[in-house]
Amino acid sequence: MRVPLIAGNWKMNTTVSEAVALVRAMRDGLGEIGGVEKVLCPPFVSLAAVAEIVKGSSVKLGAQNLFYEERGAYTGEISPPMLAELCEFVIIGHSERRNYFNENGEIVNNKVIAALKAGLKPILCIGEKLEENEAGKTEEVITGQMESSLAGIAELDGLVIAYEPVWAIGTGRAATGKQSNETISVIRRNIFRLYEAKIAQDMRILYGGSVTAANATEFMQQPEIDGALVGGASLKADEFLDIVKQTSAIKGLPRT
Ligand code: PGA
User: Fold this and answer.
1) CB of 114 within 8 A of CB of 68?
2) Which CATH class is domain 5-251?
3) Are 66 and 93 in contact (CB under 8 A)?
4) Most exposed: 28, 42, 50, 224, by fewest CB within 10 Å?
5) Residue located nearest, by CA, to atom 3 of ligand 1
6) Region 135-147: what's the mean pLDDT?
């Protein structure tokens, strides 16, 4: 059984005091929702403050990026061991990093390797651009991204994949549940081909791209979709809680 996961990617939003206010507004509500793993990904500078507030609750934390070296003269970068003291997850290969910061497959691969080595669970983002989608290249693009991101990695301990069609991110134009379910089954088949059946069956694969309280149910009703990576809607406490509640109602594992 795959435990559903909803992650909030706050991107470059919230000062430390705003992040503290936002997490305070959602911590208790999130803590009450069972059967779903809940992960908040604030900016680096707020991780410690947010960690203090969620301590002892079921809410987990993730970072939005990392550098692949452990330490040294890399001014401005944040290493995996630094993050491992603060959070459990880390988003890697988000399309905004690939597009605005020139992260290619090799960089993403190095980051995934470094995160796993530090005991962090990567949320590896993949997804096709609009022109690739329109040219019928979705499967080819995501397969290529998977092969390069996971090259040489034997153990995927805890790695989560987020399928995020680039044209759906921040545009209000989400994919349909059916479309994303189909692409996610291709992703799962790739894991089966590159690894083994058990790893493919157990791997959590999320959908991301304009998920809101209004469309969350459509995505969560899909059998292949194990949760969501939520951007804009994760900055609104009530809406994020609503998305997590819908996920729990549809996919939440029975409480024991
Ligand atoms: P969005 O972002 O929900 O604002 O489309 C999703 C993401 O980029 O992870």
Assistant:
1) yes
2) alpha beta
3) no
4) 28
5) 231
6) 98
Residues with CB under 6 A from ligand 1: 9, 164, 169-170, 208-211, 229-233
- Residue ranges per structural domain of the chain: 5-251
Residue that the structure tokens 């790739």 belong to: 190
Whether the per-residue pLDDT at 256 is higher than 70: the answer is no
Query: Using the 8-state DSSP alphabet, how is residue 2 labeled?
Result: P
Between CA 84 and CA 244 the distance in angstroms is 25
Measured distance CA(240)–CA(244) in Å, rounded: 6
Ligand 1: residue whose CA is nearest its atom 1: 231
Catalytic choice (94, 103, 132, 218)? 94
Span 135-161, average pLDDT: 97
Is residue 206 within 8 A of residue 228, CB to CB? The reply is: yes
Please tell me the pTM assigned to this model. 0.97
Q: What are 91's two structure tokens?
A: 């988003």
State which ligand 1 atom lies nearest to the alpha carbon of 174. Answer: 5
Collapsing DSSP to helix, strand or coil, 182 comes out as helix
Q: How do residues 90-133 score in pLDDT, each as one tens digit?
A: 999 999 999 999 999 999 999 999 999 999 999 999 999 999 99
Active-site annotation holder among 96, 103, 164, 218? 164
Report which residue type is found at 91: I
What are the tokens at 129?
């651009």
Active site residue 132: no
Count other Cβ atoms within 10 Å, centred on residue 226.
24
Structure tokens at 23: 């997490």
Q: 206, 123, 127, 201: which is closest to 171 by C-alpha?
A: 127
Is 128 marked active-site?
A: no
